[in-house]
Each structure stands twice: as C-alpha cells, then as structure tokens.
Amino acid sequence: MKVLFLHPDLGIGGAERLVLDSALALQARGCSVEFWTSHYDPHRCFPDSLRLRVSCVGDWLPRTVWGYCAAPCAYLRMVYLALYVIFLSGAESDVFFCDQVSACIPFLKLSRRPKKVLFYCHFPDQLLTQRQSLLKRLYRAPIDWLEEKTTGMADCILVNSKFTANVFKNTFKSLSYINPDVLYPSLNSSNFDSIVSANLEGMVHNKVQFLFLSINRYERKKNILLALEAFHNLLSRLNADELERFHLIVAGGYDERILENVEYYKELKNAATQWKMENNVTFLRSFSDEQKVALLTRSTCVLYTPSNEHFGIVPVEAMYMECPVIAVNSGGPLESVVNNTTGFLCDPSPSEFCEAMKKFVEDPSLRKSMGAAGKDRVKDLFSPKAFQEKLYQYLCKLTQ
C-alpha cells in the first residue's frame, strides 16, 4: 500500500510527533510512505524524520501578511502543496493522510484516479483562535465554514481522544452524521529506550533535590505561566536556606520565525525575574531528545499546564519514563493520567498545582510508586504495536 502524507509544517510539536509516528508505523508495517510538507528543517525537527522520504514544497509562500491572516496563509500553502503533489510531483499513492488543515482535501480529489483521504483531526482549528471583535468574527466566518465543509469531504476521520470526538460533534453541527473514530497517539518507546541521556551538568545544580519540569511550546495557550506561579508559591513557603534544593526547568519548542514564541519567552523570563526566581528557574528552547530523556529521568514530576488540551503527548512520555504528572483536569489528560495513581489532576490554579507539588516534597516515595504505575499504564494503552495495527486497519478499509 502506498501512503502519501501531507502536513503543513514539519517542526517540533505534538501534531508533528503524531504524523511522524503514523508514517513510521505504516512504513514498519510494509507500506510505501512518502511525506510532503510546506516547511522542513532537519535541524529543527524530530530526528525520526530522517528515516522517511521528506519533500518540501511551497515554503516561499507567506506564513502571514504583516503578522496577520495566518489561517488563510496556512490554507493557501496546503492547497498549493496538494496541487503540486497531484499535478507536478509524479508521486503515486493509494491513500492520502492529512491533518491540521482540511482545505487541501477537495483538491486531493482532483486526481485523475481519485484516492481515498484519511484526515486526522487534532482539534477544530476554529476553536484555536479568539474572536472578540465583530471584524474578527466576520473574518473567521468563511474560514470556519470552509474548515467544516472540507473536513466532511474526508473518507475517514480520526481524532486523538474522546474529548476531541465530543468537541468535533459539538463544533461541526452539519457533520452530525459523522462519528469520528478515536485513535490515541502512541509513544515510540523504542526511542526512549535507545537514547543515551544527556549530561545535565551546568543546567541542574547537584544540590537540587526537587526538580520540577514543564514541557510545552512557548505559546500562551499552553499557560506555562501557571507552572511559574505555582513554583513561586512553593518557594514562598520555604526558608532561605532551603531554596537551593528546588528548581524548575521550563523546556519547550521555540521558533524565532513565530512572533508569539519570541514574545512569550520574554514574558516568562520577565515574570521569573519579577518574582526573584532567576536562580531557581532555567529556560530551555528547542531541546534535544537526549536532554528530554535526561530531564524526565531526573525530575520529581512534570507540570502540564494547558487547559482543554486535545490529547497531550507529554504526560504519556513522562509516565513512560516513570515520572509522575501534575496536569490540568480537563481535555486529554483526563484520559491519560489517573488521578492519585500516576499523578494529580488539578484545577488550573497556582494554589492547587502548588499543593500537588508539595505532596512530592512531603513524601518523596510518591515519585517512585506513581512513576511505576504510569509506565504500566502507557504500556497498556499507548503501545506502538497497537497503534500501528489499528491505523493499518483503517487504511485497509479505505482501500477495499
């Protein structure tokens, strides 16, 4: 079976991790896989991408117009990519796999021999933006209509969690006849098992006993400030001579081309300075897999701060590495994290997160017991083998 993947920007994020794992899973299953994208930098991407045939087309097209119109530009780039693949690339496929931007789907149907299209819906795009002004609502109306209309043209729709399935039904009212199937992202555990941990010397002082870790892209919707505020609350309860035993590392995907990444990074650094935590907080941008493994191995727990996250692969990665998770009690973490067993689910308030962090300080054995329970859960629910077979079966049904 020949499967052709189309993805907007092959960078570092949860969506990129999922599509790469999907492509690698199908390649391991014996499929012929090609990956097409509008932007690809091997130096700012998951190393796994080197195991695939990746082609990049249309990166010359604008991402924004003077900082605005990001959605129309993303649609334009994906439509151009789809047209290039169909009419100019000479690439052959039995199935198209696309995600994030559905605008390309009707153009994929223009092929002389139309192929089936599988669309993986991470989350409705129209819910990822604010529309507080009348002008913004008018601007988004045709974009939202187009997203709903083109999403419904896919031959198979998958979502990443039961939470996203419910959001899909409530958002796309005209698609009430569609019941998207849930395919949980898998964890490529072999990567974690084979990676040699980086040396954290110089990043974490040897006197640090309690290391808290936040992993998220530098985006405001990820609410990383919550981790900083909770950590500040915790430090405020300590004596001066205890401070050096506590440290927070904020690690996340960072792209200088994206203004929000640059602005939010500065905002978080300013907040740490304002609260006089410079000596207790380290900011990491676009860290390596080796650093991630080392940090998860060393950390007391992971602070996962986004609300209504569609799925969230970070808690799954943390649990596999036997690192407990403190997450907001909404969205995907409700399906991955078991409260009081593999971590804690809290309201998105600094005081609640602080209280959960305090439990690991008062009872250090929690780290080991919750970590072991977390790894067992990942093996049961998010194994690569189960993911591979389930995805392959969806494609077989499409091509029958």
UniProtKB/TrEMBL annotation:
Pfam family membership, one: Glycos_transf_1
Keyword Transferase part of the UniProt annotation: yes
Subcellular compartments: Endoplasmic reticulum membrane
Coiled coil (UniProt feature): none
InterPro entries recorded: ALG2 (IPR027054), Glyco_trans_1 (IPR001296), Glyco_trans_4-like_N (IPR028098)
The EC number(s) this enzyme carries: 2.4.1.132, 2.4.1.257
Record's keyword terms, sorted: Endoplasmic reticulum, Glycosyltransferase, Membrane, Transferase, Transmembrane, Transmembrane helix
Pathway(s): Protein modification; protein glycosylation
A molecular-function term among this protein's GO annotations: GDP-Man:Man(1)GlcNAc(2)-PP-Dol alpha-1,3-mannosyltransferase activity
Keyword Metal-binding part of the UniProt annotation: no
PANTHER family xrefs: ALPHA-1,3/1,6-MANNOSYLTRANSFERASE ALG2 (PTHR45918), ALPHA-1,3_1,6-MANNOSYLTRANSFERASE ALG2 (PTHR45918:SF1)
Family per record: Belongs to the glycosyltransferase group 1 family. Glycosyltransferase 4 subfamily.
Protein name, as recorded: Alpha-1,3/1,6-mannosyltransferase ALG2
Organism: Pleurodeles waltl (Iberian ribbed newt)
